[in-house]
Amino acid sequence: MLKSYKTIRSEGYFLLEEKRSRFIARARPVSTEQEAIDFIQSIKAEHWDATHNCYAYSVEDGALYQRYSDDGEPQGTAGLPMLEVIRKRELTNVVVVVTRYFGGILLGAGGLVRAYGKACAGSLDNGEEIWVKPCLEMKIPIEYHLSGRLQNMLLNEKFILAGADYAEEVTFTVYVPKERRDFLEKEIREITGGTLRSQVIGHKNVRLDPSGKVLEDE
After folding, report:
1. Which of 91, 114, 158, 215 could form a disulfide with 207 if both were Cys (CB 3.0 to 4.6 A apart)?
2. Do the Cβ atoms of 55 and 69 come closer than 8 Å?
């Protein structure tokens, strides 16, 4: 299971015009390197007549893969600046392709670096940065008179409280990052005086916006 990581919510688009050249940037969240490669190929097929289709991606798929291509632009003026934008934002599992239609006026190395970097950043902004937290989905039953203390702890410690079932006792459904399970169980024991009852019922990649709000599955 991966640790928590930051990516984008959906496909992003950005159009930049610079000295008659058009830079069309597309960003997409991906889960594997092959998905990134497939996206790059689809853009190249769509914009087969473009002057350049430059790309950069960062994917953690068993290992961390970071690749880029200038696709005929002067070395270091396109793909690498795009990858640097991705790295500075600490994004993972994302690919960006910037398609350029040359407008007849040379931009120079510095102009190209700025244009590709700006186009890449614009597409990532449009795609909306989010956090993905691979979590255990846990059920925690507890007696009514202790449920308030448990709920307050869950909220104060920023655990993701997905729901509560009120029957003979209260059963909370909680999304717990794997690395925080031991801490949660220690807190439950303190609240209950040593009793621990909890059950892992599944795994879920929980998506959060920058404020920490859970995003519903789309």
Report:
1. 215
2. yes
